[in-house]
Amino acid sequence: MAPAIRALGWAGRFLSIITIAYLATSLYSFTNLMMGGGFALGEPALDFKAQELVISIPFSFNNTGFYDLTDANLTTLIRDQQGNILLRAETLMDSVPKGTRAETIHSISLDFTRILSGDLTRLLINDDKFSFNISIGLRYALALGFKLNLGGLSFPWGAPLSNFSLHPSDVSFNGTHYIQRVELSFENHSQFLPISGRMRVAVYNEMRQEVGNIWVDVIALPGTSFRQSVEMIVENPSLLTGTGQIHVYMESPLIKFGPVVIAYG
Predict the structure, then answer these.
(1) Which of 24, 32, 131, 250 is most buried, by CB atoms within 10 Å?
(2) Binning pLDDT at 50, 70 and 90, where does residue 2 land?
(3) Per-residue buried b or exposed e for 152-161, using 16+ beta carbons within 10 Å of the residue's own CB
(4) Same domain for 33 and 48?
(5) What is the DSSP letter of 254?
């Protein structure tokens, strides 16, 4: 019995030594791999396609280590300044055997029409800054899992309806209707989103009663301003107050949104 017990004890010690050696060499190999430039990110390329921004980032692994690299994934989170997640993109690389090199493209497609039709319509009128956070996860030597934060970058967001304003004049009577002349203006700070279509502007008083509404044909290319004076029919001048809300709707072949609510007064 004693020899058998001693044999089991030696076997257990041997397995422990093998396990420790395996983990030690795996960590050593992985550290050398990452420190020696085994992973590389290329220069991002930007492409504007209608209402979509496509960012392509090449990345590669040169596995000069002792073991295979598996389940590699590059993940990008895009947030606005308030921390809202606008997009999560992930690219997988199943396997990079030892002694080989593999490369692929991490593609990020940011559809602005989807963003502006959701809960972030404030981005229509407010400039912002988007931040990119890039991380990589992988498994090395079939046993060790790693999650590495690679840092991030940022780029400015220009609102297509920046500085949107409505300046009403005094109400006049033209013999048929009460008319209020309204000057509508905004600046398209976007680098790639044109504003072209019909805009409906509804004015509400402080009791949330509609004072009047107008339809305006607008066109403002990226980097340009729009200013137009229009006449709005006021059915009941007694509803006019010094404060209230403006509800803005937009209809065009490429983009549709509303209401964007802006306080006035």
Answers:
(1) 250
(2) low
(3) eeeeebbbbb
(4) yes
(5) S
Residue 105 has pLDDT above 60, yes or no: yes
67-82: per-residue pLDDT in tens?
Answer: 778 888 889 898 888 8
Instruction: Looking at the structure, tell me whether residues 92 and 61 fall in a common domain.
Output: yes
CA-CA distance, 265 to 263, in Å (whole number)?
7
207 three-state secondary structure: coil
Q: Which is nearest to 49 in space by CA: 104, 106, 112, 91?
A: 112
| Entry field: residues in the chain | 265
Based on the domain organization, do 63 and 143 belong to the same domain?
yes
Q: Are residues 116 and 206 in the same domain?
A: no
Find the domain containing 46 and state its range. Answer: 11-157
Residue carrying structure tokens 């006019």: 240
What span, in angstroms and rounded, lies between the C-alpha atoms of 241 and 46? 48
CATH at 148: 2.60.40.10
Q: Any bridge partners for residue 185, and if so which?
A: 165, 227
Measured CA to CA in angstroms, residue 168 lies from 175, 181, 184, 241, 264 at distances of 20, 6, 9, 12, 11
Give the model confidence (pLDDT) of 119-161 as tens digits: 667 788 889 998 888 888 888 777 677 787 877 778 888 988 8
The pTM is what? Answer: 0.69
